[in-house]
Amino acid sequence: MAKEEEDDKLPDQDAAKEFYAKYEPKEILGRGISSTVRRCIEKETGKAFAAKIIDLSNDNGEGISAKEATRQEVAILRHVAGHAYIIELQDVFESPTFIFLVFELCKNGELFDYLTSVVTLSEKKTRYIMKQVLEGVAHIHARNIVHRDLKPENILLDDNLNVKITDFGFAKKLAEGELVHELCGTPGYLAPETLKCSMFEDAPGYSYEVDVWACGVIMYTLLVGCPPFWHRKQMIMLRNIMEGKYSFSSPEWADISEEPKDLIRRLLVVDPKQRISIDDALRHPFFQTMKLHHRQFQARQKFQWAILVVRAVIRLQRLKFTPEPLSLNTARTDPYRVKLLRKIVDGCAFRVYGHWVKKGEGQNRAALFENIPKTELKHIYVTNLSR
Ligand code: ADP
Ligand code: MG
After folding, report:
1. Which domains does the chain carry?
2. What is the pLDDT of residues 263-282, one digit of tens each?
3. Is 8 a catalytic residue?
C-alpha cells in the first residue's frame, strides 16, 4: 500500500541533521496520530533510546498546532522528570517539519501488549504494577499536572517490568483549585465528570480525580483482562460510565479476593469528591500485603519455622475441602467455570485473535471475553436435545 509505505518513510534527512548526526534510527516501536516512535542508537555510546518523531506538516493554522502542543508536552515532561516511574526525556531536536523527542527506551513496551500476551495479571502482579502507577501519578499530581490519558498503552515497562508513565500529550498544569472542561482522553477511560463537561453547559469541570478514575479502569482491566464499562454500543458504554455501572460478576472475578475489589469500588466512584485519593489508595489494605524482604531480625528463622508449622496445620485442616477433582461433566458442559480451562481457552483466543485487539478503547479486547451468547447457544442446544 502506497500510503503505508509513505508513512514508514523516515523524515527528510535535511530537516533534522543534528538528530541524525547523533542517533541511528531503527525499527518502529509504536505510532500515534501524528507521531512515530522508533528505537534508535546513540552513535557515540551505542546505547539504545526511543525517538518520538512528530510530523508538523499537518499544521494548518487551525486550533493548537502540533508544534505548540509538542512544546507544551516537553515542558511538562521536564517538569515531572526525575521520578523512577515517569519516562525520562533525554534529548529534543526541533526542525521546521519534525520534532524529535528522545526518551529512555522501555524494552518491554506497553503494559497493553504485556496484558494481551498474558491475558490477565495475578493479584500479586497487579499489586506490583498498580503501586508503581499510583506512585507515579501521585508524583505527577504533586507537580500540579493532570495526565488525562492514563491507559495501558501509555504505561511502558522497562527491562525489569517496572512502570514508566508516558505520553503527556494531553497533560495540563493546573492552577490552585482550577477546574477544566475540555473533553480529552480515550473513551473507555474517561471519568464521569469529564463526560458531564461535554453534555451539560453548567458542568462544574474536572480536576486531578480523573486520573484516579482511570487508575480504577486500568486495575480492573489488569485483573480480568477486559475493561469495566465496555459495551458494543459506545453510547451505552458512556452511559455506564456516567452511572458508574460495572460489575464483578464475570467468572474471572470469582477467584479474586475482596481487597482488590474493594479498592476498585473506591477508585470507580462517580462523584469525584467521594472518590478515594491517591494517597489513601496507596494506603489501602490491597497494598499492605507486600512480602517482607528485610531480614534484620534475629528471630527470623524462628519466625519462619513458626509460619511453616502454622501453614502445614492449616493445609492439613483444609485437606478435606481442597481436593476438588475436575468432573468430566463440568469440563464438558461448562468449561469456562474451571479456572485452568478458562485460562487455556482465553489464552488460545488471544493467541489466535490477539493481533485483532486494537488499542484505544479496549473494545475488541472486551469482545474476546464475551461468552454470554455462546452460553445461550449451548442452552438452546441442550433444550433441543432433551425434547
Ligand atoms: P502518542 O502521543 O502518539 O500516543 P506515545 O508517546 O504514547 O505517542 O507513543 C506511542 C507508542 O510508542 C507507545 O504507546 C509505545 O508503544 C511506543 N513508545 C513510546 N515511547 C516509548 C519508549 N520510551 N520505549 C518504548 N516504546 C515507546
Ligand atoms: Mg499514546
Report:
1. 3-105 (3.30.200.20), 113-287 (1.10.510.10), 328-379 (no CATH)
2. 999 999 999 999 999 999 99
3. no
